[in-house]
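Case 296 in the screening queue. Each case pairs one protein sequence with one candidate compound; here the compound is adenosine-5'-diphosphate. For every case the pipeline is the same: read the inputs, emit a complex structure as tokens, and attach any notable structural observations.

Predict complex for case 296.
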Amino acid sequence: MRDEYSAATEEITGHFSENESTEIRGRQLVSRDHRKTVGDIKVDNPRIQCRDVSVFYADKQALFNVSLDIARNEVIAMIGPSGCGKSTFLRCLNRMNDTIDICRVTGQITMDGVDIYARAMDDVVPLRAKVGMVFQKPNPFPKSVYDNIAYGPKIHGLANNRCELDEIVETSLKKAGLWKEVKDRLNLPGTGLSGGQQQRLCIARAIAVSPEVILMDEPCSALDPIATARIEDLIDELSRQYAIVIVTHSMQQAARVSQRTAYFHLGYLIEVGDTKQIFTIPHHQLTEDYITGRFG
Ligand code: ADP
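Case 296 output:
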């Protein structure tokens, strides 16, 4: 453990001056009033790169100069107290904030090197297929299970005939771990499924349009522990194929499902790092306060 502590101290002393850090229980931590992100925001071969992203709702700034890479095939968790900008940040990644009139986004976000806020990308439909989203409350369309999945591929022209569409529906439901439960009721309404099944249906719907990234905004907060465990297992499986960015208010969930964790505080990305490091030896005092239950 001493080695990990001294590595952490070295990282801090390397990036922050003496008056920016404080020694706590024999360990150097960045002081509470510093807002520069601690930890490595970069990854090798990123899928998404965010640089200096700020978000305003009318005159109120909700996110301050966030820079962060999202890797391919990683699960990265966004944690922090309520109202600290986690969902706002998530919504920047597929331009969902465009749907809020008073919302303005500055800075740069690229996906595979392409600026997703460039004029040429103003048709956001293809972007939202590439960067799918799953919400807090399962929101199946008021359609059959089959049509919930088939709708996206139909609009995006991903199937040439009914047979190909059937194939996409089956594969997506299988990937979402729902096929066995619904294969005999594909024509029944999606809204008739249990909460956990509805959430997996929404995940299958996102998968059906061949995304590269899946955004999940507290996907288990409306689910019971068993349904939650199924979604968490699914996240693990899906991460082999997709990058997953998950907002969660549960630190236990972040620890269970993610490889990296980003801690937000009052609109600032305070710290990012390996999930285990964030939860055992955080480098910023604000992260330490949060994970030890002193804040939020
Ligand atoms: P979190 O996901 O961490 O709970 P949010 O991103 O939802 O935080 O909110 C960050 C800040 O932005 C909060 O102060 C919130 O009130 C504000 N905010 C979020 N959405 C809107 C909106 N649609 N209109 C105005 N302000 C908003």
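Case 296 observations:
- The CA atoms of residues 84 and 266 lie 4 Å apart.
- The chain has one domain: 32-291.
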